[in-house]
Task: structure prediction
Amino acid sequence: MDAPPSDSNSAAGAPCESTPSAGDSSLPEAEEVGAPSEFRVYFVCTGNVCRSVLAAEYLNAATAEIPVRANSGGTEINPEVGVPQDILDAASARGIDLSGHRPQAVTVEAITEADLVLTATVEQRSAVLASVPRALKKTFTLKEFARLAETAEWQPVDSTGATVNLSHECSSFVAEASSRRSQVGRDANAEVDIVDPYLREPAVYREVAEEIVVAIDHILRKMFR
Result:
């Protein structure tokens, strides 16, 4: 798991992979936000020490030259837990340093401000939508969105074009992907979750890291040229 189980009444959070109920009002309310100057992606997992942080920082590294910015959060964080060594190693192998990362909780504000929300699992996607139902059209699991990107009829954005409104174009891509959501849903064999590697063998961490990287690379190739 991304974070170890702990007392549900403690500040460290509840057992991992449980998700907030639709009536959970513990997340802070969103504040008024201005017009975005960049395309903002928000990754969500459980503890924010494995899947979501690796995904966010890999995307940031891959899009360093264009106005795309990723952040991440967890549905059940334990602030005393750091990034596991196997994730640090997977990130380091790709030129990313996660040693300074500390887990952050998912908030309504972060979901609201994001242009695209990508979760590790369907359960976490449901938790996001229970908190912010209006985020439906921009919230997917990472693998679900990668599959939808494959089906999208889209002319990749020229990310080097000075006159391109990249944020607007990327949001249009998200809308196109959302309109095709039922195509993935009809495929009974489509696995759209990324398993939680926390406290599992090193091979699982490596497999999860590769799944994340492959999915993000696929999305970027479809969205940009």
Notes: The radius of gyration is 17 Å. The longest strand covers residues 39-45. DSSP finds eight helices and four strands in the chain. Residues 1-36 have pLDDT under 50 and may be disordered.
